[in-house]
Amino acid sequence: MERGKLIADRYELIGRLGRGGMGEVWAARDRVLHREVALKLLDLDGIAQADLPRRFEREAVAAAQIVHPNVAALYDRGIHDDVLFLVMEKVDGQTLTARLQAESPFPLTRAVAIASSVCAALEAAHRAQVIHYDIKPHNVIVTGDGLVKVIDFGIAGFVQAAFTVARSSQLTPAGTPEFGAPEQFLTERGDERSDLYALGGMLFAMLAGRPPFTGHNSIAVVRRKLDEEAPPLDAFRPGLPPEVTALVTELLERDPDRRPQSAEQVQQRLQALLASCAAAEAPTAAMPPPPRTRLMDDTRQAPRPPSPDSWKSASTDETPFTADALLPRRFTNDLDIEFARIAEDTRLSSEAGPSDLAGELARRDCTEVVVGVYAEQPGPHATPENPVYVSIQVFVFPDAATARDAHGYLGDGGGAWRLTIWSARDGGGLAPCPDKVHRSFRWRYSQRVHRYVTVALAYRADLTNDGSIRPWLAAASRKAAVSAGPQNHHG
């Protein structure tokens, strides 16, 4: 492949980003949507398996179901001149490999935070029945603003299945030896727990400055994994909290049945570790003030403004429950389309959906929601005759644990598609959308930050049922949900 070549009459190759054993990755320009993308070309020449195109299609469709801020989105797939290609979100940043080369080992809080972001990506993928099979630092990108993105979901599994993993000469495609689970290098393919093993290996590497297993070649590393238990993390980094070393030890168990059984379980433990890290890093309490005198009683002091990052603390959250504190005025999605807030209000949680949903919220001590409505703005990349609208609801709960439980219900349980869709009322204010909006094609995305759960739902003004609008709605709802939350409050 060469610069300037057009793939599928749509994607113009700009520059090669990398080359692997089965193909290349290019930065490309999507001439239809006028955006930069990453194009992965998989050269399967010489692999005589008649069902490869069908399995390629299945894996790509499965990976496309993952819509999550910690996962690089898969936009398109196809075949061009007998080369399979995948079109993915282009993520600007450094791989975790490069970050580790520049600074290793990581501080505890940073390592746990990155592991938590990767685990959140695994949760979303495993819910979509997609297994990565090659979680490693090179497949994790950290953007300039600190967002963690996992790339190649579903693709690694497809690549692995194209080989007979029992042959030692093909060990690498079965997973990266330093991070892949032991079962992946036998006759088994592995399952969700294989991804969790690799996550444990990455957390070990971030904290110890090296992978748990090393050797003079790939086969030696795999042999050690099959024959030996993983070394204890505290042998390389003493003084870590026992909860950290225990989690890493469990993730690196050779027997999958002895590992944590789901990404959700691991995420709960990582979130608890993050909370304890935040509490440990918080400044110590000042000495108690001296007894108040009459002069002091008569002297009024200005109230101390809340910290902009107070929402990150495990026990303190000073974020006002208002639209301006929890909702951005504007945001720009991944398609370079800007959205502006056109209406906002605070409503009772009983208005967020039907009575059974209201009951679930009340049971979790959520009594009010902040609501905002956003409209697509005309600009250099968007001149909409029928703009996309986004309805956002921010729910607040007493603590992060309750919010996590509620997120499971709002995101995947009984309330998934029954939330109220809000619109801007003529003359100001909010109004629930009519039923015909619910019947149109729409896209929903949810996000939890600390004790806040944000749910965004996008639809187009003409209420189309054409599913081709999905990329625009998905991009709008995803960025809306990620942009809303306590990070908007600046004291």
UniProtKB/TrEMBL annotation:
Residue numbers binding ATP: K40
Taxonomy, superkingdom: Bacteria
PROSITE patterns the UniProt entry points to: PROTEIN_KINASE_ATP, PROTEIN_KINASE_DOM, PROTEIN_KINASE_ST
Protein kinase domain ranges (all copies): 11-274
Gene Ontology molecular function, alphabetical: ATP binding; protein serine/threonine kinase activity
Protein name: non-specific serine/threonine protein kinase
EC category name: transferase
Keywords of the record: ATP-binding, Kinase, Nucleotide-binding, Serine/threonine-protein kinase, Transferase
